[in-house]
Amino acid sequence: MKTLSFAWRYLWSRPLGAALNVLLLSLGLASITFLLLVGAQLSKAFDRDLAGIDVVVGAKGSPMQLILSGVLHIDVPPGNVPLKAVKELAKNPLVDSIIPISLGDNFAGYRIVGTSHAYIDHYEAKLAQGRVWESGVPMQMVLGATTARKLGAALGQSFVGSHGLGAGGHLHGDNPYTVVGILAPSGSVLDRLILTDTASVWKVHEDYTASPDDSDDDRQVMEEEREITMALVKYKTPMAALSFPRYVNTSTEMQAAAPALEISRLLHMLGLGTDVLRAFAGVLLLTAGLSVFIALWSAVRERRADLALLRMLGAPPRKVAALLLCEALWLGLVASVLGLLLGQACTAALAWLLQLDNSLLIGGVVWPVDLWVVPALALGVSLVSALLPAIGAYRVSVLELLQSR
């Protein structure tokens, strides 16, 4: 304990140098912490929200855009597809189930998603209040937990959606929604959505585009030409992945996008950016290591009188070497704490800035298993940097120390 106390005092006997070393080491560790936290949380969110969805069928365009808009709800969809064509796909012997997704409106920036009860069942979400909408009955909505909290909504409250997926569009004032249920937090994408029956989306947009002079025949044609945005498909057998997407892409006017494949591509593209940050963090750690080495090596030379006094008082060489190692350990410990806090703060700031509301990045403090590498790396860099100065202090004799004065 005395050695640790002496090492702490020695470390801060030169406050500017110690602070610089702590700052350099903390910045490198914070960068690594940030990368580990973002990577772990994105992987967890992708695994959670993509689970059980084998393929997404939608309009021709970018497959990745289809996945991001229809599953993660962080992009705009490429277009709509005929409901009739989706119903034909549901008859395919390779298809186990299909969940319809209809987009196009929002309320206060939260997406209104027309779908079926199967969408809630897929994520095993539970109701906190109220009930789900009645199938086929339009203009009833169920709010995700985050949406309800942000809007301060309550059962029975009415809302008017606006056109588009972002706030500021044309208001559909003739078709207000009524809140009939609020979901409990599930940690899934449902938390930040507004769910309703697909019939609600059709009603709002058909009333918006239809003319008062339209005949009953025109209305019937409109029903036959109804569309949805996309369909989330689950296979009956994994072997369907070999033929079903090819069938959709070549034999229909739609496209099939495999979530696992597209997310792998996305993570690969993100990896190019993280490689740069990782290299930057490595440079900071290397610089910090050299700075610690120089500081401790200089400390051995500056503290010859102190070291000589310790040796004359009976301290063995290993005690003197342990003093320098403990000083390095204190430095690594302080830097690891600051680096972890700074990395957590940066991750929380990114989540707040992007307004992801716990759907992809969690704003609070989290600790994935991989994060233990940060304090281990901090202590490792500090000890390696202190190794040569400690050996030098161990080998110097008391006589040489006294003669140097």
Strand proportion: 15-25%
* Tally of separate domains: 2
- Number of strand segments: 13
Which percent bin holds the helix content? 55-70%
Poorly predicted regions are: none
**Averaging pLDDT over every residue, what do you get?**
81
**Major sheet: size, sense and barrel closure?**
11 strands, mixed
Distinctive features:
405 residues, alpha+beta, eleven-stranded mixed sheet, two-stranded antiparallel sheet, 13 strands, 55% helix, cell membrane, transmembrane, MacB_PCD, Multidrug ABC transporter substrate-binding protein
Task: Itemize the secondary structure elements and their pairings.
Blueprint: H1 2-11, H2 15-50, E1 55-59, H3 63-70, E2 81-82, H4 83-90, E3 95-107, E4 110-115, H5 117-122, E5 127-130, E6 140-143, H6 145-151, E7 158-159, E8 162-163, E9 177-183, E10 194-197, H7 198-209, H8 216-224, E11 227-228, E12 230-235, H9 244-251, E13 254-257, H10 259-302, H11 304-312, H12 317-354, H13 373-395, H14 398-403
Parallel strand pairs: 4-10, 6-9
Antiparallel strand pairs: 1-12, 1-13, 2-11, 3-4, 3-8, 3-12, 5-9, 6-10, 7-9
Helix pairs in contact: 1-12, 2-10, 2-12, 2-13, 10-13, 12-13
Task: Kindly describe this structure.
The chain is α+β, with helices and mostly antiparallel strands and 405 residues long. The protein folds into two domains: 2-46 and 265-403, no CATH class; 55-257, no CATH class. Helix content is 55%, strand content 15%. A hairpin with a 2-residue loop joins strand 3 and strand 4 (110-115). Helix 2 (15-50) runs antiparallel to helix 10 and helix 2 runs antiparallel to helix 13 (373-395). The longest helix has 44 residues, at 259-302. The protein is elongated.
